[in-house]
Amino acid sequence: MKTYLIRKLLLLLPLLFGITLLTFTLTKALPGDPVLSLVGERAQPEVIERIRQEIGDDRNIFDQYFGYVKLLLQGEFGRSYYTNRKVFDDLLLKCPNTLKLAAGAMLIAIPFGLVFGFISAYKKDTFIDNLVTTVSVAGLSIPVFWSGLLIMLFVSLRLKLFPPSGTGDIRFLVLPAITLSLPAIAALARVTRTTLLEIFDMHFVTTAKAKGLSEFRINAVHIMKNALIPVITIIGLDFGSYLNGAVLTETIFGWDGMGRFIMEGIIKRDYPVIMGCVIVGTLIFVVINMLVDIAYHYLDPRVRLHEDSR
Amino acid sequence: MKTAGKISLLILLAISLISLLAPFLTGYNPDRIDLDSLREPPGFDHLLGTDNKGRDIFSRILYGGRISMSIALTAATVSMAIGLFIGLISGYFGGKTDTVLMSLVDLVLSFPTLLLAIGISILLPPGIYTVMIAIVAVGWASFARLIRGYILSLKESTFVEAAKALGCSHKRILLVHLLPQCIPLLLVMMGMRIGGYIITEASLSFLGLGAQPPTATWGSMINANRAYITTAPWTVFSPGFMIALTALSFNILGDSLQEKYGVKIKG
After folding, report:
1. Which residues of B touch A150 (CB under 8 A)?
2. Taking the CB of the first residue and of the last residue of chain B, which one, N or C, has fewer CB atoms within 10 A?
3. Coil, strand, or helix at residue B9?
4. Which of A286, A300, A294, A233 is nearest to A4 (CA)?
């Protein structure tokens, strides 16, 4: 367990190194003065001076890189070329919106994904099972930026049930959250189905049946307990992948989160914005994945033993 | 599932065929702007209507199909080749090599695909090759992990022992004895991954990081026309339908290959 934790934490270092190296190279590769491109043309002279000291050309490349990382750690992500606002401040404003969207999508995905998965597994090889399986493959194959547009067209522009785009109260959240939840429902239903079918064949289920336990007890205690661990893990891991979908969904629905922020950055070639989003997005993704991984190892003794004996 | 697999294979062949034969199937130049026929609904002149610049959507879909298909197939083949190589070496030699290579795989797999792709595509100029590189940069890792696991389980089997006893070199064991065993697994994995690559390619094009205008790709067609969704929904509908149909067919094909070869791949 301990070695596992350490191994995971050690992995975080090269990852952060990789991503900062990428963005650092980019700062250097951009045309013009890298210092000015980091802070913006209209920055105060003392800020320019401070940053020039950290990553200025008069120092060797390693010192420059470490200076850059030091600036990042201080929350100095540079300023947007267009608004001249600090990228870090904007990220602080937009990050909660993305998390809200992801949480909303998750609240929809979990019940639906689980219920479909359960139905499908308990009714294996029936019409319903085939239907659920096919629909979930479809759910994984439809790009969210297309399903989002269709949902927007029918639900909000034709039926006028919800506002088509914007940021605000829960009414604005419903459609993007539904859109973002579709692939997650599909993935969750598939995993739940496979997990349950595997468990049905396991010896302890046969034993429980042989002991004459009631059908209800077998299902509620023996099967559920074992099925929930992998399913919970998938839910957690999926939370990270919502970030990918959020870039597209937020763009479609004009939801003012990190996804739309990065998309606007891409369109305007606003490099400090793109870099800030990539760094923070990757960090969130990695940290969530790591926490889920650790929780998984903590929850499931079998995995723990397996890892330790490796 | 067997018939579903066959049908999806047929659909994929049909999509590839009409994309390849695009010049014979349509009289329109996909990039020719015609300001006299902006956003015309589907009809006899334009089978699927025209877009916001009066370009024929049907021919743009056919030519866009070339790009989507070739990016996805090339990216899958290159990912597979790199993953196979790394997986074979890592699984067969084990020890330090294995630790280093698998840490690298873990590292790559912990990046969010789309964000990494966005990072790569600002470093390189946006375009077809950038999309391929972005997909391969993440894609090879899952192939490597899969093959490595499989080789680990094969390494101890008698036929490898026998080959070693006969004095075969490592190279011969890897290429002649172990590699052919991996082929079904690779096929299944390819089938399962390409659908995702189609979607990634479409997403990157949608974000404006793929092939640059006026070149048509399914993703960029949706982005360029999404402002007109109320008045001209056909401009957005058909490219999205093609993305979904292609990805779906690959995914179903992958599922049925998995069933056919009796291999199980998680995720």
Report:
1. 237, 240
2. C
3. helix
4. A294
